[in-house]
Design a protein that fits this description.
Blueprint (H helix, E strand, L loop, with lengths): L3 E3 L2 E7 L2 E13 L5 E12 L9 E14 H7 L19 H5 L2 H24 L7 H14 L11 H11 L4 H15 L3 H12 L4 H4 L2 H14 L18 H24 L11 H29 L2 H4 L34 E4 L11 H11 L5 E4 L11 E7 L6 E5 L5 E4 L4 E5 L4 E4 L6 H8 L28 H4 L4 H13 L2 H14 L7 H5 L5 H10 L6 H9 L1 H6 L1 H5 L7 H5 L18 H6 L4 H14 L5 H13 L2 H8 L8 H14 L14 H9 L5 H17 L1 H9 L2 H11 L7 H10 L1 H32 L8 H9 L5 E3 L4 E6 L18 E2 L7 E7 L7 E5 L9 E9 L7 E7 L6 E6 L7 E9 L7 E2 L1 E7 L4 H29 L7 H19 L3 H23 L9 H11 L10 H17 L36 H25 L5 H20 L3 H16 L3 H21 L4 H18 L7 H19 L4 H10 L7 H43 L5 H13 L1 H14 L33 H4 L2 H17 L20 E6 L2 E6 H9 L5 E3 H8 ...
Parallel strand pairs: 25-29
Antiparallel strand pairs: 1-2, 2-3, 3-4, 4-5, 6-12, 7-8, 7-11, 8-9, 9-10, 13-23, 14-16, 15-22, 16-21, 17-20, 17-23, 18-19, 18-21, 24-25, 26-28, 27-28, 30-32, 31-32
């Protein structure tokens, strides 16, 4: 099962060293499906660093995850939450011990006292006059605080009068009264979190509470909130620069956050058990819940809006458009070319786009977009290609011509090719007619299509594809959309629009409602009806036109960033950018910009600064003029300040001008004067001062700031901090204390109020810490609520209707694809020596370098990284010119400190030609310390030189934190669900059929969520990967794990699929429905795995047909498969192995075994393709499964099977010579058989198969000759022959043919020599009469001396030239020189004596060939090595002419028939004596000759043993008179099958014994594989028990080579008798401590009377039972041994 079980509890792995386990049941509710749900707190356990093996666990109760779970999920994961009856134990309502200890009467008296004290405190507070509070009031409050610390009295303090008392006390000007109120609040909040939250919520919801609270009172409440949320949402944002949020805005965020949490609690309480509710009807309860959901969504939207503004995300990204994420599967790995971190593509100067038509990114699915294009596109319109498709690339433009019902259906005339080509609807983007097209710069909608097309890779749209690409895309198909719903806004879009309508006040709100009523037939709209409205798109567009003029600046900024405006706003419909900046939205372009100022505004630096702000800028200029007048009135200034609150852009520009260079002194003084005056107005304090405080700090820190400007700045900051201490806190967070101290040192303390300002800032240190903690808690709480909504979305499959939900996620994921370089990644760089030159590593100058000084191998560079930086690439710059100073080996270590650098991250060998050495890439963990150690230098150098360091890392944003939390919650949710589903499958295997629909729904839910809310591919891929690993991987592991019977659930399902495969051909049958479910499940499980990069565009062949057939072989998984594919392939392999084993056991003796096995294998192949697609991993599993089934066969059965395969191949090769349709059928059967035989490669059966195939091949080649088919077969199944004997046979045959050609030339040369001799003889005869008698006598003496030699030579020449003077037609004789090393001729043939068995006209040819061959041995071009001699055999064939017949016979039959040419009859006994053949061999040759087709007749006679042969008369029996007659005797090798098989088994058993004996002698130390092979071969030849005397008993099986030894070693490894060492796999040792009965020499001799050696060794079964080294899961096999 997934996860771990500890103490009978289920622990879920969340990451490296992190686990979660269920701790407590918090609450209970009724889910949307009507079944109960329970909220469980899961504690996060972090694995400690100490303890043995790191097994100690440290509980971090501050870290937890709240998860709603169903009954089934609790049953499968939370055992301690179950009672004895198996039911879930609900949340306990325990009464504390203190409450039970108090008497009811005493408790009642105390409650009466508390009520009277509250009444008295209110009266005394009203009577309080002056600044000093009376002592009785303080005493009363003190007593109330004491009562508040008693927990049973908590209910009394929920009286509304207590809230009034606290409000009055908190708003009192006296510090002691405010302090006493804080003490009472702390006493009330000390009991539990619920009471604390209720008090905070009650106080914060009081109207205009901010007006009654001063700085200290507000800080008291904020501290209480910080304490309340300290352990609720523990989340660290270390390393992320959080903005400085003033206390006023923080308090507003706290109010919003408490309101949202309160509504969320009410939602959960409203779904509690029905028995706990009031007596309201179901309709009332449903209406109440809908009201709460709407209110919660609006409140959550408000919180997100204010949080975005407080974090200043809207300003930081106001000029950036969010990129539309490509609609690709989040579960498939992203292509490397489209991943982050790549160099930017070539610039696109301009891209043509349409003003009218919508792009594909605006549609929820590809089907919807395809329908839109099909209904909109007209003939003649311009279109652009979005995806690469055959001959058309992404970005190509063309003209639409026509469409039809074909596939693909759209015909376009493309400009890139100059001709038409057919594509699909969803691949096109409509540009329209020329008047509808405009040129835009940096059109980011097309980044996913056009830019990726520029990269050469187009990310395909996964939702809508032709059926031929079914296996290339995810099997998560989108749901069909209702056409009526597509014309209206979704509920999420309408609620987002309703959010802005509710923002309006008074008349504006009524006007918008009037627009709604006019378009909805005047229906009266209340809150309940508004929430359920179905708003048409046209009405939404009208509302979006009316809203911008009625919203303030912040709300307008939210509107421009929301999704509904981007989709239906006027800019989006017109084709313009839907993300203008605030200035572009508020102000029209001013034609007067850059010209002379108007008469009412003088040309001043202030005017030039604000001239581009439009009307808001003129408003600020009017404000400045009013401030400059004598005695400005508050009534004159207040309207301008209210306007600035709505549009604060000019104010922010004014403050940010302080960060400009010091040369702008007049402007700085003017700005500081205006700001100094603004501080005195209460309305000005509501301006966003904190957003521009960075500019003030920049001016304060700048060394060039003029003293006068610095003095005015200190006056202003002191005044601002005095008026509002919140800004003193902001200054503290910005580090103003150190900046002021440096300014005082520079100006020798001559800055007025600087010391006071520094002390004021220093006193706010505690408050600054509180503000930072509050900002962290609020942001962490919001993230947790967002994650909770995502969880509810997963569980209920209901849409998320919260406004700005996607905006919040966009900002949390912002920066997931951004990178930072060099010094922004590290804090400091340390070196082992010469620290004064360490700066050369980071100066980005390749000419400079850091050179070490020390001993070799002691040099290092240490990087202290910034918090949270995950290194994407660490590069070392070197130079080859440094020679021996250049590093040769570099090792990188990581650790948490300089004392714990124990983890080796990578080691790199540096080539002498390298210049950039990549040390690290794509780290997934943050390492505070990275150390680069130079272990060795080139050429043995001692010191080293490094030219530089380059580091790429992600930008420190919220994305790493949010990714961690999102992945944790996702992993926990889906692993719990996977455990529950696995439990169902374990209890009932039939529930596995429903797994496909379950997974399909879950994956579709995540895909739709990512498409709707996640902004970029990295965030979507992180979610998809986590979901897949948490849900699919554990499920696959569980359903592929065998049970007690050794059968896994998926294996059982696949077995059922294979059994009902034939019945599934009927689409109306139950088997077809069953098979469909199985296929959908397997397709879904494997669709993620093809992650290889596509072929380059230039190398990828494209078909030119309209309906192309895809090459599925490109989808095969390359490299190592993942754990999912590994488990699935193991399961499929086990199923195939069982199927093959059952088939072999049942049919191995059948006559048609091979065709039936090939058909069975073909069906398994088709099933594999149907279930898993054309994936190499599953095809390999199919082959391994078939191999496993073959390995289970006993040796003799395996030998029989291999002989049947060799015989079947032989029959099909010979049958293919027939030609015609029958020959083609034979070739098809041969091809199918060869595909099956390929499995023998690497198996032990390959040796026996080669043995049998060698004999059948020899008979074919010698009987009918060679053909092209022989080579083609060997080329295909060559790996099945470990000794490569068949290949050597063909090579030997080729050499023999070359010798035959040389022999032909040799014969011609001999003929030429003979003719030349005749000519010379004639010349001598003509000149012989001139010779004298004296010379003639001298020659006689010489002839007498050489008579002996001449006679010998003449005899040889006569034998060689016997056929030169033959008067008949010379036969054509071809000699085949067969090498006994590869041809099986030793034991099945006899030698031939040409002198006694062949006629003279044949003997001469053989003699000449013998002489030719002996002479050719002296030519190294033909043969090398020792000289070889020829030995003639009876092998071969001949063609004889017998009347009108052509007889095809063997060499023996040829001799016999030619012998009968001179005799009328001949006895078989005389033939045996003359030829020296065995009776069996001669009878085998006679049998075809005496058949009905043969020319001879065999007559039995009493006095002649064996009978008499004579030529048959034509009148005796009818027989063919014309044509070819094949009389070659049938193969006799089948008669030796049993004997040959037992001989092979003898050889294997002898080798096994030798291997075991040698390994036992070397003990546990073992022996190297090469040494073992050599020792076995040596022992086979001359060992103490030499088997060389077994030639007579073993025959051909006595031969032994290294391949046979390796085959036996693999066999013993699979049995567990021999084991490999873990650290040295090439070392082998004996593994079975059992006695091995070695054979005695006597029993191996032919004359021995002992037991039969094959039976003795065959019964010696070496098993792995009880062997500690053997595998417990099954026999392992190794295909190769390297």
């Amino acid at each position: 099962m997934v996860g771990e079980l500890r103490y009978r509890e289920f622990r879920v792995p969340l990451g490296p060293g992190l686990h979660a386990y269920p701790d407590e049941l918090i609450r209970q509710r009724v889910g949307h499906d009507g079944h109960p749900e329970y909220q469980i707190r899961w504690l996060i356990l972090r694995r400690g660093d100490e303890g043995e093996g790191g097994s100690s666990q440290v509980d971090c109760k501050a870290e937890h995850i709240l998860l709603w779970m169903s009954n089934d999920e609790i049953y499968a994961n939370c055992h301690k939450m179950l009672g004895e009856d198996g039911q879930v134990i609900g949340p306990s309502q325990e009464i504390t011990g203190e409450a039970g200890a108090l008497d009811k009467s005493v408790l009642g008296e105390m409650e009466t006292d508390v009520k009277s004290l509250i009444q008295r405190a209110l009266r005394q507070l009203e009577e309080c006059v002056g600044t000093i509070p009376p002592a009785p009031l303080l005493h009363t409050v003190h007593v109330l605080s004491a009562y508040a610390s008693i927990e049973p009295l908590t209910g009394v303090f929920k009286d509304p009068r207590v809230l009034d008392l606290l409000m009055h006390m908190l708003s009192s000007p006296d510090y002691q009264i405010r302090w006493s109120a804080g003490r009472m609040i702390q006493a009330l909040a000390s009991h539990d979190a619920g009471t604390r939250t209720q008090i905070l919520l009650s106080l914060s919801q009081q109207e205009a509470i901010e007006k009654h609270l001063d700085f200290d009172s507000r800080c008291a409440l904020l501290a209480l909130f910080a304490q309340a949320t300290l352990s609720e949402h523990p989340m660290s944002f270390e390393g992320i620069q959080l903005p400085q949020v003033p206390g006023r805005l923080l308090f507003s965020l706290v109010k919003r956050y408490l309101h949202v949490t309160s509504l969320l609690d009410q939602l959960n309480d409203s779904a509690a058990e029905p028995g706990a509710q009031n007596n309201s009807g179901p309709e009332e309860l449903s209406g109440e819940r809908d009201r709460l959901e709407l209110e919660f969504s609006m409140a959550m939207g408000t919180l997100i809006s204010e949080l975005v503004q407080a974090m200043r995300w809207d300003w930081a990204l106001s000029r950036q458009r969010p990129l539309a994420r490509s609609s690709c599967s989040i579960f498939q790995p992203q292509l490397a070319e489209a991943g982050p971190g790549l160099p930017p593509t070539r610039a696109q100067p301009s891209i043509r786009r349409s003003r009218r038509f919508r792009p594909r990114s605006e549609f929820a699915s590809g089907n919807t977009y395809a329908l839109y294009v099909r209904e909109t596109l007209q003939a003649g319109m311009r279109v652009r290609m979005l995806d690469d498709y055959e001959e058309v690339s992404a970005g190509d433009e063309g003209e639409f011509r026509q469409s039809n019902n074909g596939m693909p259906p759209v015909q376009v005339l493309w400009e890139s090719t100059g001709r038409t080509y057919w594509v699909h609807w969803h691949m096109l983007e409509i540009l329209g007619f020329e008047e509808d097209i405009e040129d835009v710069v940096e059109a980011n909608e097309y980044q996913g299509a056009v830019v990726s097309g520029a990269l050469g890779v187009a990310l395909p749209s996964w939702r809508w594809k032709p059926m031929t690409e079914l296996y290339a895309v995810p099997y998560v198909l989108p749901e069909d959309e209702d056409a009526e719903e597509s014309e209206h806004l979704t509920q999420a879009e309408w609620w987002e629009l309703l959010f802005f309508i509710k923002k309006l006040d008074g008349p504006d709100h009524q006007e918008v409602l009037q627009i709604l009523q006019e378009n909805l037939d005047g229906e009266i709209l209340d809150d309940e009806i508004l929430a359920e409205l179905a708003v048409p798109m046209e009405l939404a567009q009208d509302l979006l036109l009316a809203l911008p003029q009625r919203l303030d600046d912040s709300a307008l900024r939210d509107l421009l960033n929301c999704r509904v405006y981007r989709k239906y706003g006027p800019e989006a419909l017109a084709g313009h950018p839907a993300y203008p900046t605030l200035l572009e939205a508020q102000a029209q372009p001013q034609e007067s910009a850059g010209k002379e100022p108007p008469a009412q505004y003088p040309d001043t630096p202030l005017w030039r600064l604000l001239v581009d702000c439009g009307p808001p800028g003129r408003t600020f200029l009017d404000l400045e003029r009013a401030l400059s007048s004598e005695g400005p009135q508050e009534t004159e200034i207040k309207p301008f300040l209210l306007q600035l609150q709505r549009q604060p852009q000019p104010f922010l520009i004014l403050m940010q001008s302080l960060a400009t260079p010091a040369a702008n002194k007049p402007l700085h003084l003017t700005v500081l004067r205006i700001l100094m005056q603004l501080v005195d107005f209460p309305e000005a304090l509501l301006l966003p001062w904190h957003e521009a405080m960075d500019a003030c700090m920049a001016c304060l820190r700048s060394p060039d700031t003029d003293r006068e400007v610095l003095q005015e700045l200190i006056f202003f900051l002191h005044r601002l901090a005095s008026v509002s201490r919140d800004y003193a806190v902001v200054l503290n967070q910005l580090g103003a204390r150190d900046a002021i101290s440096k300014a005082l040192e520079k100006h020798l303390g001559k800055l007025e109020l600087a010391q006071e300002l520094r002390d004021m800032v220093f006193k706010c240190e505690k408050h600054a810490h509180l503000y930072r903690k509050l900002t962290t808690n609020i942001l962490g709480g919001c993230i947790q609520m967002v994650l909770g909504q995502i969880e509810d979305h997963r569980r209920t499959h209901r849409p998320i209707n919260i406004p700005f939900f996607d905006v919040f996620l966009r900002y949390l994921c912002q920066g997931s694809s951004m990178e930072v370089k060099e010094d922004k990644c590290w804090e400091k760089v340390e070196v082992s020596s010469n620290p004064h030159r360490a700066s050369k590593l980071t100066d980005r100058n390749p000419k400079t370098y850091w050179e070490s000084s020390g001993s070799a191998g002691s040099h290092y560079i240490t990087l202290h990284m910034h918090q949270g930086i995950l290194i994407r690439q660490l590069t070392l710059l070197v130079a080859g010119e440094d020679s021996s100073y250049m590093p040769a080996r570099v090792v990188v270590f990581g650790g948490d400190s300089t004392n714990s650098l124990n983890t080796e991250l990578n080691s790199v060998n540096v080539m002498p030609s390298a210049s950039r050495v990549i040390l690290l890439e794509n780290l997934t963990r943050f390492w505070p310390i990275i150390q680069i150690r130079i272990k060795r230098c080139q050429q043995g150098g001692i010191d080293t030189r490094i030219r530089g360091l380059e580091v790429l890392g992600p930008k420190p944003t919220f994305w790493p934190v949010f990714r961690e939390q999102l992945c944790r919650h996702t992993r926990l949710f889906y692993m719990v669900r996977a455990q529950a589903w696995s439990q169902d499958i374990a209890e009932d295997r039939r529930s596995l059929l429903h797994l496909s629909s379950r997974l399909n729904g879950a994956l579709r839910q995540e895909q739709n969520f990512a498409d709707r809310f996640l902004p970029d591919d990295e965030a979507a891929q992180a979610l998809g990967k986590t979901c897949w690993e948490a849900l699919v991987s554990p499920l696959v592991q569980n359903i592929t794990s065998p049970d007690e019977d050794g059968i896994s659930p998926l294996g059982w399902l696949l077995d059922q699929y294979l059994e009902c495969r034939e019945a599934a051909h009927n689409p109306q049958s139950r088997a077809a429905a069953f098979s469909s479910r199985v296929r959908r499940l397997t397709h879904l499980l494997v669709h993620v795995e093809p992650c290889e990069a596509p072929l380059p565009a230039a190398a990828a062949p494209r078909t030119k047909s309209r309906n192309r057939s895809h090459d599925w072989s490109s989808l095969a998984t390359r490299g190592l498969p993942s754990s999912i594919v590994r488990n699935l392939t193991r399961c499929w392999q086990a199923v195939v192995e069982e199927q093959v084993n059952n088939f072999l056991t049942s049919h191995w003796r059948d006559d048609d075994f091979v065709p039936r096995y090939c058909e069975h294998f073909h069906n398994l192949q088709k099933s594999s393709s149907e279930l898993f697609g054309p994936r190499a991993a599953f095809l390999l599993a199919l082959q391994n499964g078939c191999a496993g089934g073959l390995l289970k066969l006993p040796f003799l059965k395996a030998a029989h099977v291999s002989e049947q395969f060799a015989r079947h191949i032989d029959q099909r090769i010979q049958g293919s010579r027939i030609g015609g349709a029958r020959g083609m059928e034979m070739l098809a059967q041969l091809q199918r058989c060869l595909e099956t035989v390929l499995i023998f490669s690497g198996l032990e059966i390959a040796t026996t198969f080669e043995h049998y195939y060698q004999h059948y091949m020899a008979d074919r080649l010698l009987g009918v000759g060679s053909s092209w088919l022989e080579g083609a077969v060997l080329e295909q199944i060559g790996p099945c022959f470990p000794n490569r004997l068949p290949q050597q046979m063909l090579q030997s045959l080729s050499t023999s043919e070359e010798l035959q050609r040389q022999f032909h030339v040799y014969q011609l040369q001999r003929l030429d020599q003979e003719l030349l001799k005749l000519e010379d003889t004639e010349k001598k005869i003509q000149g012989g009469h001139e010779t004298s008698d004296k010379e003639h006598k001298g020659e006689k003496a010489e002839e007498a001396e050489g008579a002996v030699v001449t006679n010998v030579v003449e005899e040889e020449e006569e034998e060689e030239n016997e056929d030169l003077y033959y008067e008949g037609a010379m036969p054509e004789v071809s000699v085949l020189v067969l090498s006994p090393r590869c041809w099986p001729i030793a034991s099945i043939c006899h030698t031939l004596n040409p002198r006694t068995c062949l006629p003279s006209y044949l003997r001469g040819t053989l003699n000449r060939y013998s002489n030719f061959y002996s002479k050719s041995q002296s030519y190294p071009a033909l043969e090398q090595g020792l000289k070889r001699r020829l030995q003639w055999t009876w092998l071969g064939r001949a063609e004889l002419q017998f009347g009108d017949q052509t007889l095809h016979v063997s060499t023996v039959q040829m001799w016999l028939l030619l012998y009968l040419n001179d005799l009328q009859a001949v006895s078989v006994e005389s033939l045996l004596a003359l030829s020296g053949l065995s009776p069996d061999m001669l009878n085998q040759a006679i049998t075809p000759l005496t058949s009905l087709r043969g020319p001879l007749d065999l007559r039995e006679e009493n006095d002649v043993p064996g009978g008499v042969l004579k030529i048959r008369d034509a009148s005796e029996e009818p027989r063919p008179r014309r044509g070819n007659v094949w009389l070659i005797p049938p193969q006799v090798y089948l008669k030796a099958e049993d004997e040959e098989g037992r001989n092979l088994e003898k050889r294997r058993n002898l080798l096994n014994c030798l291997i075991v004996r040698i390994l036992k002698a070397h003990g546990d130390k073992g022996l190297h594989i090469d040494q073992l092979v050599c020792r076995v071969l040596d022992a086979w030849q001359k060992g103490p028990c030499p088997p060389r005397g077994l030639v007579s008993s073993l025959g051909r099986g006595s031969a032994c080579n290294s391949t046979d030894v390796l085959s036996c070693i693999l066999h013993l490894l699979g049995k567990g008798t021999v084991r490999r060492h873990d650290d040295q796999p090439q070392m082998l040792s004996y593994a079975v401590p059992m006695t091995v009965m070695e054979p005695h020499t006597e029993s191996l001799n032919p004359g021995s009377s002992g037991p039969n050696p094959p039976l003795t060794f065959h019964t010696l079964q070496i098993r792995s039972r009880g062997v500690p080294y053997a595998s417990c899961t099954g026999t392992q096999s190794f295909s190769t041994f390297r």
